[in-house]
């Protein structure tokens, strides 16, 4: 059963406690990355057989296979994916930023160019479940940013990538798709193989092996974030429906045994009712064993004196998903400082954001919402600055620049400026 805490008696350690049964995979991941670097495609074929039970004849998915995946979707699903893609695109187009040029001093031009990252790699999980929503959320911002090539990798669990994942890739506009997953897929994207192209940035969630591989290749390539298990924190008042609150908590608990579902409320009556509802609803789920472990090991209900205190608890935890199940959620929105994505009101379950609303569902976890942001178009662009001075403009500041350089003990810096006006240097 989910644990119930009184916030005034709760230690910081208990607030952030989370069961973690993940093994130390750093060494094993390092060996996999080294194997891919040295053996290329041969290592990918071997690991597909070892980890995914897939005896592959080809790594790359053909255009014909992608088209067939779309054609084979159950009635109405292609249209649903396309409608969701349109909503996601409409939201992310508003994130585009422009280059700029500034010329406020005579003879001086300053500016910034915003350029797309040329090649990006999307990691799409495919183990315990297939998530076409992840394809849309990762690919569409990259397309809007203008990336020249978008490459997707996904594990061929049991023999091949899920057809719905392939269909989503075609609908979203992925350029190339490869049957490889886990740490080996990350290594292939970072270093390239005979078949898989090297990319400039890798984005997308994955298990502990994928997260560790992204950590190890960072610097060789850029990454979006190190994603941890999913999280939801619901702030709810006493007027909330316990059945709905419990359902929302379970929407994340069913992801992973290490997922964290937290309710923060000022109503003990609601807290007790949600406890009971969780016990009623868990057995009804197809993934009941996963949800049960998540709720028992990582679930919490925290009682606070009022809703403002509840918001402060949320800010301390900095959850991936934050629901404000109150009558006037906008009255509390300004008080929210740390959250990946906020869902406002009683009619906005987190699942809406996972699939259909438009904002991205790739979000910071494990408290990193204190300094990280959701995946966005900004993740797929880079910025280049430029500077122009005429001779007259440089002459006005030459002495100041030289003095600054000499203050730092860098004489050659000073002389590089002064040499343009003093032929004796």
Automatic annotation (TrEMBL):
The active site is at 320 (proton acceptor), 321 (proton acceptor). Its cofactor is Zn(2+). Its EC number is 1.1.1.23. SUPFAM superfamilies: ALDH-like (SSF53720). Substrate binds at residues 230, 252, 255, 321, 354, 408, 413. Zn(2+) binds at residues 252, 255, 354, 413. NAD(+) binds at residues 123, 184, 207. Pathway: Amino-acid biosynthesis; L-histidine biosynthesis; L-histidine from 5-phospho-alpha-D-ribose 1-diphosphate: step 9/9. GO terms for cellular component: cytosol. GO terms for molecular function: histidinol dehydrogenase activity; NAD binding; zinc ion binding. It is an enzyme of class 1 (oxidoreductase). InterPro entries: Ald_DH/histidinol_DH, Histidinol_DH_CS, Histidinol_DH_monofunct, Hstdl_DH. It holds the Pfam family Histidinol_dh. Binds 1 zinc ion per subunit. It catalyses: L-histidinol + 2 NAD(+) + H2O = L-histidine + 2 NADH + 3 H(+). CDD domains: Histidinol_dh. GO terms for biological process: L-histidine biosynthetic process. Catalyzes the sequential NAD-dependent oxidations of L-histidinol to L-histidinaldehyde and then to L-histidine. Belongs to the histidinol dehydrogenase family. This is Histidinol dehydrogenase.
């Amino acid at each position: 059963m989910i644990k119930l805490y009184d916030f005034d008696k709760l230690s910081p350690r208990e607030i952030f406690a989370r069961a973690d049964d993940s093994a130390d995979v750093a060494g094993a991941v390092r060996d996999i990355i080294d194997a891919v670097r040295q053996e290329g495609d041969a290592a990918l074929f071997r690991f597909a057989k070892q980890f995914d039970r897939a005896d592959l004849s080809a790594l790359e998915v053909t255009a014909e296979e992608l088209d067939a995946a779309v054609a084979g979707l159950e009635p109405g699903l292609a249209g649903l994916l396309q409608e969701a893609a349109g909503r996601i695109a409409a939201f992310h187009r508003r994130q585009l930023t422009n280059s700029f040029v500034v010329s406020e001093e005579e003879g001086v031009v300053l500016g910034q160019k915003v350029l797309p990252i040329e090649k990006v790699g999307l990691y799409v999980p495919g183990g315990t479940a297939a998530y076409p929503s992840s394809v849309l959320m990762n690919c569409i911002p990259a397309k809007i940013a203008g990336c020249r090539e978008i490459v997707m990798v996904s594990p061929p669990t049991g023999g091949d990538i899920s057809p719905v994942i392939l269909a989503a890739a075609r609908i979203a506009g992925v350029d190339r798709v490869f049957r490889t997953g886990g740490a080996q897929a990350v290594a292939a994207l970072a270093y390239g193989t005979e078949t898989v192209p090297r990319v400039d940035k890798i984005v997308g969630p994955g298990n502990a092996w994928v997260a560790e591989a992204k950590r190890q290749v960072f610097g060789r390539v850029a990454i979006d974030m190190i994603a941890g298990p999913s999280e939801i924190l619901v702030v709810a008042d006493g007027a909330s429906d316990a059945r709905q609150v419990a359902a929302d908590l379970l929407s994340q608990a069913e992801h992973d045994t290490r997922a964290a579902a937290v309710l923060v409320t000022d109503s003990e009556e609601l807290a007790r009712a949600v406890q009971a509802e969780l016990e009623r609803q868990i057995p009804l789920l197809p993934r009941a064993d996963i949800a049960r472990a998540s709720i028992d090991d990582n679930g919490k209900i925290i009682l606070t004196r009022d809703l403002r205190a509840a918001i402060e608890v949320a800010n301390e935890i900095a959850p991936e998903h934050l629901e404000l199940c109150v009558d006037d959620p906008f009255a509390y929105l300004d008080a929210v400082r740390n959250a990946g994505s906020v869902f406002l009101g009683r009619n906005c379950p987190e699942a809406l954001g996972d699939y259909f609303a438009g904002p991205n569902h790739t979000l910071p976890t494990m408290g990193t919402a204190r300094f990280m942001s959701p995946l966005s178009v900004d993740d797929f662009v880079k910025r280049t600055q430029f500077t122009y001075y005429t001779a007259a403009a440089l002459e006005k500041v030459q002495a100041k620049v030289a003095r600054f350089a000499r203050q730092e003990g860098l004489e050659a810096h000073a002389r590089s400026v002064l040499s343009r006006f003093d032929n004796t240097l």
